[in-house]
Every structure is written in structure tokens, then in C-alpha cells.
């Protein structure tokens, strides 16, 4: 059986570079996963081009198979684009108050976020003040007041001054209405007097990008010089993310991003689109309508979510630690000699099972998430049964399953507590697998599928 296979392994052992065919198949899967996650097409193109370039220059690893190696590169690159791999904290002012301005389209989730941010800050010992600088929509001020009340955070609003959280009401003499810039400026003054240490300014949004809106946001920005300008974007926006993010980046030059509505179907592709087009960090995610549906953003977790691979890095780390290279090499040799028997199969099965329950492993394979239901039904006992059956065979039977006749089958079934037809099924599957492996190795010398080659 085939010199091709052994030469393929020799090639891997010689530590050359990853080959184009190793890389392109994996990249095709990655591209599909990114498009499924609604990453903008232009971003997918530039991203995969970068991955390909990097992968082509990569030395073949001793402990990872080429697919795992490419996936590892994808994950590193993705985490990098999403925030240089580190969580970016809020930038607090040296001299309070810290001023945080929210910007984004109408319905993006700014007002909801103001409440969450206020609640979160208050919970960690800050004294926030919410500011109603959206004077565009009739109910915007009231909406913020309701949110503030729920969060127990005071709201500064035109005409009504400050509504305190159950304590004293504060009003500002001479305050005017109708001008969001003045509202923002007055609120900051009040925060200084009353020692609120953070000021969160809610601003107006439009349904689409609009120069008048952008100018208003810019005017507020210039009047109060915020420490943070957070661009809030609906994760469900999909392909429009690029254009909207660009417009706000040019319009108000925001300092950070908040991704909202991540509780829905959105896989978070907008995160990659926005981060790669603007280069700005993502600080938080919003995951529901409740006050506590709010999380600090972690680039590594979002990378997994976008690719829908479960915790692929964990899998790879486990594989690096636990795969016995020597064993894998021996198996490959046997396969190439045509002497891969059930005992070898049992060894391989145990190697794989060291990594964790099969169900979890399968769930980490790219594209498998679509089969969640089937995975749920995957019966771990099936694997136990397989092991038990092989254990009930003699060494000679394991080496050469063709000698297993009817009476041996009955003995094995009895010994492992299964039916004869279950033994038959296993032998049949093994025979098919052996045939398939022979074919695969004849065709492309591709190594043991799923067995992490040397
Ligand atoms: P704004 O126009 O940017 O101020 O957006 P709003 O804060 O008024 O939010 C618009 C709608 O989206 C409201 O119905 C919110 O309840 C809802 N919303 C905001 N954030 C989230 C979120 O993270 N998840 C979900 N499911 N709904 C949200
Ligand atoms: Mg609003």
C-alpha cells in the first residue's frame, strides 16, 4: 500500500512549509463560516487573503495536522483583529468626571446601553449621571428617564433638571431646552458641582447615516470633549456594518465600539467587520433588554463565536499535549503497510477519547454547529460498546479481523454483552473504514483523517 502515503509523511516530518492544498480546503471552510456569520464580503476577502499568506509561510508543525495549524492561525488572526487579543477597559479621566458619549443609528440600542452602563458603573462604586441629549424623538427623554429609574441612576434632562435616585432632586437654574449641545455642556458642569464621577450622554440617532445627525454628534463631542465616544451598533445589521461604521468613524471619530443585540441570531460577524474596517476596539456587548444583559467584550470568545467552532483553541491545546506522536507515526506506518488492525483502531480510539467526550470533540469541528441536534443525540455509549467489543477479541482476531467467523462472533458478543448483529455491524464498519483509508491514501497521501498526523 502506497509509497505516496509514506512520502507524504516523510514530507511532513521534514518540516517543510504548509502546502497550498493543505491550506486552501481549510480556508474555504473558514470563508463559508465567516459569510454565515454575516461578516461583510470585502472583509472576508481581505481576511482570508491574509490568512492564506501567513499559512503559506508557516513551517509544518510536529504536533498539529495541517488543518489544525491553519485553524490555529485563523484564530490568532481573528483574535488579533478583534482587539489585539486583549480586553480593552474603559478609559477613565484622570480628573473626574469621565465623559462617555454614545453614538449610533436609531434603534441601535444607545438608550438601553446608557442604563446598563450606568447600572454597571454604579455597581462598581462609581457615581454616574445619565444625560438626555436626544431631543429628536418625542419620547427619547422619557425613555431615558424610565431606564435611569430602573437602574437607580440619576438622569439629567432638559426642563426637568436632575431626577435623583430617591434622594434630593436637583435642578439647574437657567437651563434651556431644545439644544442638545447645551444640555450636554450643562450636564458636565452639574457633574463637576455635584461630584458625579461619570457622565453618560445619550444622543439622537437616525434611521440611516445622515450629515445633520453627524454634525450634531460632532458638536456635542467638541463641546464636552468626551473621554470615550462609544459607537453602538446592532449586531443584526449584517452586511451594512461596514458602511455604517465607516460613516461614524469619519463623522465622529469614535474611540470604541459596543455591539448590541448579540442575544439574537446574530453570530457576531459585525464585530469582525467593524473592527477590521475601523481598527477601533470593541469594549462591550449588549445581550438583551434587561439591565444586566451587558458584558465586557473578550476578543478570544468572539473569535470562537464567529467561527462557530466551539472552543477550538482548547481542542488544539489538548491535542498538542496529549497526542502521542510516536503512536500516530506507528499507526501511519501500519496503515501504509496494510496491517492496520482493530487493536490499532482501539489505540487510536483511546487517543482521541483522552481529549474528552466525543460529543464535545465533534462539536468543535468547523461546520458541525449546524448539526447541533444530531450531536445532542450522539450516544457516548456507542463508543463504549465499540471498545468493549474489541476488548473481547483475541490479539489474533484484532490483528486480522477476517478470521472472525460465526462462532467467534457469538463468543465476542457474549463476552462484551452485546448482540451478534452489533458485532457484525462493527466489523462491517471497520472493513469499510479500512477500504476508505486505503482509497484516501492512494489518492492524495493525506494521512489519517481526524487522527492528527505526526
Ligand atoms: P436607540 O435608538 O439607539 O436609543 O435604541 P434603544 O436603546 O431605544 O433600543 C431599541 C430597541 O432595541 C429597544 O426596543 C430595546 O429594548 C432593544 N434593545 C436594545 N439593546 C438590546 C439588546 O442587547 N438585545 C435585545 N434583544 N434588544 C435590545
Ligand atoms: Mg435612544
UniProtKB/TrEMBL annotation:
The keyword Nucleotide-binding applies. GO terms for biological process: SRP-dependent cotranslational protein targeting to membrane. GO terms for cellular component: signal recognition particle. GO terms for molecular function: 7S RNA binding; GTP binding; GTPase activity. Residues 444-454 have a biased composition (Gly residues). It comes from the Bacteria. It is found in: Cytoplasm. GTP binds at residues 104-111, 202-206, 260-263. Keywords: Cytoplasm, GTP-binding, Hydrolase, Nucleotide-binding, Ribonucleoprotein, RNA-binding, Signal recognition particle. Its EC number is 3.6.5.4. It catalyses: GTP + H2O = GDP + phosphate + H(+). It is an enzyme of class 3 (hydrolase). Part of the signal recognition particle protein translocation system, which is composed of SRP and FtsY. Belongs to the GTP-binding SRP family. SRP54 subfamily. Involved in targeting and insertion of nascent membrane proteins into the cytoplasmic membrane. Binds to the hydrophobic signal sequence of the ribosome-nascent chain (RNC) as it emerges from the ribosomes. The SRP-RNC complex is then targeted to the cytoplasmic membrane where it interacts with the SRP receptor FtsY. Composed of three domains: the N-terminal N domain, which is responsible for interactions with the ribosome, the central G domain, which binds GTP, and the C-terminal M domain, which binds the RNA and the signal sequence of the RNC. This is Signal recognition particle protein. It comes from Bifidobacterium merycicum. The chain holds residues 7 to 460 of 549 of the full protein.
